[in-house]
Amino acid sequence: MSGTADDRHDGGAPEVPGSAAWLKGRLLEIAAAFSADRVPVTAHEWTDPVRLRDPAPVGHRFLFLLGVDGDGHSSSPGFDDAVNAFAAAGWAVRRRPPGLPGESCATAAHEGFEVRVYEGSGRRLVTFTGWTPVVYTERQLPQPPFTLSTADGVLCDDCQGWGVCLECEGRAYSGGRGGYGRCWCAANNAGPGRCVECRGRGVFTAAEMSWRRRRYGLPDADSGDTAGRTPVEDGHVSSTGALAAVVRRTCACGEFRCFWRNTVVQADERLLSRFVGTCQGCAAQRAYAFTLPPGREAT
Ligand SMILES: [Zn+2]
Ligand SMILES: [Zn+2]
Ligand SMILES: [Zn+2]
Q1: Closest-lying ligand to the alpha carbon of 216?
Q2: Ligand found nearest the CA of 173
Q3: Do the beta carbons of residue 120 and residue 263 sit within 8 Å?
Q4: Up-side HSE of residue 62: CA atoms within 13 Å toward CB?
Q5: Where are the beta strands (DSSP E) in the chain?
Q6: In the chain, at which end, N or C, are there fewer CB atoms within 10 A of the end residue's CB?
């Protein structure tokens, strides 16, 4: 079940390794186990390329997003059952503080695999966002602190999220292209070759993210009024259907990666399903809203 690094050199879509197939299988199995009467939906499958100094990726992380429709009733299977199903399958589960009232969040970890378990407010949607360890194609590097989709912020352009100077790869006094002597990076003189741009955090500072948002004509900060300004769309009968559509849309900056959160409320005769998230490319606040048929019992 560990990653099978292939030795292809082309820049095309990476071959799906055994680790990714394993993860997808486990996610589907656990989703089916906690909620026997609902069919889990694979809303999205994608990869995070991992780079060093060159634009060509040195490896990929494989990610899957599964959604299970809830019916809004507190007595029906939901977040707690999902978390228990991961624990029963041998995953180490940690509950996380919820972002908004009514939300639930946890992480489940197992041998380098990680899953974010989430239930939106209104109990209409449970999602699993699962990812593999990074699978390298040639040189076997350590696991990065995070990748495009899993960073709590926007990856630093300079170090691609590694947090270290990529010239010496953070090894003070030992790296450099010749293998000897000090790296040119300023950080190397003072100790570990941390990335100077992000000061070793691997993600942009607030000021840099603000610059990126402005560059794409996006509001500089969250106005707090995304609900009021979001047009309401029709055309979906369930939150998982709407989720599958939302995850394919891109931000004005071109990035699709976003951890989507969901709120479902009763609005007149119908349900209003809102998706909100922070763009992983520029940290803009994104939002979509859909009407769903009333009181639909998931099948
Ligand atoms: Zn950096
Ligand atoms: Zn350096
Ligand atoms: Zn963006």
Answers
A1: 3
A2: 2
A3: yes
A4: 19
A5: 41-50, 59-69, 92-96, 104-110, 113-119, 125-131, 135-136, 232-233, 261-267, 270-278, 285-292
A6: C
Integer Cα distance of 184 and 179 in angstroms: 12
Give me the sign of the Cα torsion angle 281, 12, 55, 115.
positive
Query: Could you give the domains of the chain?
Result: 18-137+216-292 (3.30.2030), 153-215 (no CATH)
- The CA-atom distances, in angstroms, between 208 and each of 49, 55, 205 are 22, 21, 5
CA of 59 to the centre of ligand 2 (A): 21
Residue 298: partners with Cβ closer than 8 Å, 6 or more residues away: 37, 38, 69, 70, 71, 238
Q: Quick check: helix, strand or coil at residue 21?
A: helix
Average pLDDT, integer, range 134-156: 93
How would you class 190 by CB atoms within 10 Å of its CB: exposed for 0-12, middle for 13-18, buried for 19 or more?
exposed
Are 45 and 63 a contacting pair, CB within 8 Å?
Answer: yes
Ion ligand 3 nearby residues (CB, 5 A): 251, 253, 255, 279, 281-282, 284
Residue with tokens 């040195």: 58
Question: Where do the DSSP E strands lie in 123-207?
Answer: 125-131, 135-136
Among the residue ranges 43-47, 90-94, 161-165, the one predicted with the least confidence is 161-165
Q: What is the pLDDT of residue 217?
A: 86
Distance in angstroms between the alpha carbons of the first and the last residue of the chain: 33
Say which DSSP state 155 is in. B
Distance 199 CA to ligand 1 centre (A): 6
Per-residue confidence band for 185, with pLDDT thresholds at 50, 70 and 90: confident
